[in-house]
Batch of 2 targets.
Target 1
Amino acid sequence: MRRRLDALSQDLSRREEPRSTPTSSETGPSGLGQAVGLGFRVTSEFVAAIVVGGLIGWQGDRWLHSSPLLLITFIALGTAAGFWNVYRLAMKTGGK
Amino acid sequence: MPEKAIDPIHQFNIERLMPFHVMGLDASFTNASLLMVIILALVSLLMLAGTSRRSMVPGRLQAAAEMSYEFIANTVRGTAGQEGMRFFPFVFSLFMFVLLANLLGLLPFSYTVTSQIVVTFALAGLVMTVLILYGLVRHGTHFLGLFVPSGIPILILPFIVLIEIISFLSRPISLAVRLFANMLAGHITLKVFGGFVVALLGAGGFAALLSPLPLIGIIVLTAFELLVAFLQAYVFAILTCVYLNDAIHPGH
């Protein structure tokens, strides 16, 4: 019994090997689901960076009374960060 | 009164089931808390029952438990490497909590915990805290190298560092807002379509004949919401892994 179990598990792991290697790089649910998930990620990362830049600029302006210098600078920086986020995401998914 | 029945925002009301005030803080047991307790109980039940009888040929519960384990284990290994498996319990708990919160929220008369930004932001904040603490403990000040990419001319380096910091700060916000906004928008859409059915029926005549159309819409939307519920939990888990990967290997 023991030997048969061992043989079975060996057989299983051998069969698992080729199947797990191609799927490990894309563990996503399905083609469509993965695409939709990626879309959600890209949009929210892009928008969030701009929002964070705007918030920093806005609060910085209120603190230093330099309106609207910092707001403009940080929105520009936030937009750059947003593009940077999207670029990094695209590089990561494309490179794999 | 009929106004209130069609109000699509009404579903997000928090009702205090057991009022409880501590030192001026409102810590009442609400319907949201009740749902969270149910979620925790369900996850625990699934995992305990699924792993109690470790049979060779898995039953339904065991198969579900094993599938969720393998799914998350593959995700963690794929994005954060073998070292990321240290965080497997953390990511798994997050995934199961968000998944069940999203799915249970779809049941009639239940409550969607993840449609409250407080909850999602608390989860995102937890992820960021774990990440920063682990990064600092593991790598010390070298962790800050995350903000200073190598091979950048010294002239534009301050600029890049600022961008990197903003990009880092945007992570918890994007993590929290995405989950919250998706659940909120989906549930409001469902309620609005439900309101259409009632309004068309109430209008009578030719309009009443049209009322099945939004009903079909609801069915399609519910299916879509199921997909979104799973996807958002998946995205939350995979992004946690991606961010953890940065903490494990800073300085790309």
Target 2
Amino acid sequence: MTAVATTTRPARTGRVRIGNLLRRSAVFLFLILLMAYFASSSDRFFTTGNLINVAQQNASVIIVTVGMTLTLLTGGIDLSVGSVAALAGAISAGLIVRNGLPFELSAPLTLALGFGLGLVNGGLVVFGKLPPFIATLAMMGVARGLTLLYTEGRPISGLGDTYTFWGRGVVPVPLLGDVPAPVLVALAVVLVFAALLSATRFGLHIYAIGGGEETSRLAGVNVNRVKLLVYGLSGMLAALAGILLTARLFSAQPQVAVGLELQAIAAAVLGGVSLFGGVGNVWSAVVGGFLMGVLGNGMNLLRIASYQQQMIQGVVLVFAVTVDMYLKRLEGR
Amino acid sequence: MEQRPLLHMKSIHKSFPGVQALRDVDLIVYPGEIQALVGENGAGKSTLMKVLNGVYTPDSGQIFWQGEPVTIHSPHVAQAHGISMIHQELALIPYLDAAKNIYLGREPAGALPGMINWSKMYQDAEQQLAQLGLNISVRTPVRFFSIAQQQMIEVAKALSMNARLIVMDEPTSSLTDREVETLFEQMRALKARGVAIIFISHRLDEIFEICDRVTVLRDGELVGSHPISELEANDVIRMMVGRDVEQIYERPEKTISSEVVLEVRGLSRGAHIRDVSFALRKGEILGIAGLVGAGRTELAETIFGAHPASSGEILIDGQPVVIRRPSQAIRNGIGFVPEDRKREGLFLRMSVSANIVMVVLRRLLRGLPFIPWGKVGEVSRDFIDRLDIRTPSPEQRVRNLSGGNQQKVVIAKWLTLQPKVLILDEPTRGIDVGAKAEIYQLMHQLAANGVGILMISSDLLEVLGVSDRILVMRDGRIVGEFDPATATQDAIIARATGNDPAEMVSVRAGATS
């Protein structure tokens, strides 16, 4: 032996566990603190009506965040979700108002459209070898343009009660009372996708691709199929969010959901989803989404002007991610 | 061994535009054999292994696997036959746990379509790891494990695919001695099970310890393949480079001036470096030995200002200087060739010439805003010549160069500043024997020109063969000084690990006085 012997690395598991625990609950803690603060400074905040309001307003953001989590986990991104949501809202409304289709037909067609647009994104990434940022940035422009073209820049209204139910309607749930329909939809989406990610082969492969695409390919993972599907699902969830938004506004607005993609990215990152892929989960992404929602609502109640609100949201995002990165360093990589 | 060969690669030819990478190469591996595949960088080892793994298709030649001719056109096919590769850069997914890594792409199906039978997967993984004597949690993300443990997880992955032949590409390069021993035990166990191993390494001592046969490639051709018992280290080196080992550590006659160029007094930084003092003279090569984690790299980084000292003094030419940032160190004539040249020493995607002029650029600019390309070309061509950097052109991207030539580029970068002190951290790590000799010659030449050289190295042959004086570090302190003419490897190891009886006595004496 010519090399000098070395000692083995010290065990770090204890510290790792604390780090992980902190990491997992940091957003949660932050959310609770924030809610406590708003509850103490506004007596309207902690009312059932307001909290339901928060959930209702954020249902579509949370749904899109779930899709964003999928694309981020593979190491990609989907910037087109806001535009796809707007286009989906317009088309679903148009199919009813202009073509006389019932909502029961218009909604699934719209979801299929979202899935298709997502597949186009995926195709550009997988077969066109485009960086996801560019492929979905292009789709962002195209889908918004199509929306404006289709609506001629004007809202489409006259949706009917079956449609608007998914925006404002409530469903009586045992124990909880009346729960807004969009909140139930978001909850279902979160449950389904959390299970998909943690229990299925598809989910495992999403994490694997984000952690090492070439390794995954060599291990026999069908990387192309998984990625196509992930972008497809992201598009479909964006379309779903678009329908819920349209229902809540009683009409399809061509300029709806501008910046939705950034809200979703912020929420996912707040929830600890890595922008480089492979790390994160749906639950904490949802908590991240909720955090942003509560922040917005609380600031409204405290009558903070929207200009300042945007600044505060930016600061909170930077602060939370800085804390997150600090904890990650503690973990010792 | 009159068995049927497990693998017979016969008369393999492979050329790339402008290069004949493999010419008429034969490789025969028997079951249960550990075969060393050696050669300098560029000798064709990795090309041959890529042909075996189905990454490259040979231009001509045939591969026989267990006596049958086979065509391997992808790593997948190789795996299906039972050929697994363990690359130097481990191919595990850091965030996934051991079980998920081992069974990725082959997850046991669960009750419902698309589901995974998790309990079976974890049990199987535990079994695989237990067979290798690896007692680790299969539920912990693999990035928390040491490199050695991660390697064993790769081995477990290979075995779970029923590998009959495992290719290990420099598996020991980032392992500690004890870890290397564990790896060797596992390799012997695999061998006993009839698994064959192709072991690629630059370290001859390891090859002689573990291998049954040595196959040597040079310039894309087979030089020879012999049972280890018929060879000595010198024979292998001669086959690899065509010269003797003595020549590698050949020292020129020299006299070191008495002028001190760098002096460090009571330097400390947290728990990393404690009260370090030493003096480096002009033209001296001062070797620093010690365990990984003894504070050697930290010392270098502190002197270079990458992490400022918490206390202590640094003197250049007898004058105290303030060094809290690398730029200050550079201004004071210190150059630093880091351990990890790819990450810290080079801009891999930039050209050779851009890398060479990187630190001297400010001087070349002379306050003008435009890069003087003519001057840049002149300087870089000059250093390419002087250091004999083998590159097709100064515009070649650095990442396409061999390790030895990359290292020369890093050294050239500092030489452009005519440094007074050059710190080299593991200067020949991952560099083949021939290039090593050239780096040593270069160091001696610089010393002869009056440069003070601080060399950190874990390779004791190198420390003893190149240094004029040796300091040993342990726990952030300097715990000994040796003269390479009289010191032995054992003495240095004993001091580095704290098992040196001589030191015990002196420490006790110091405590009572």
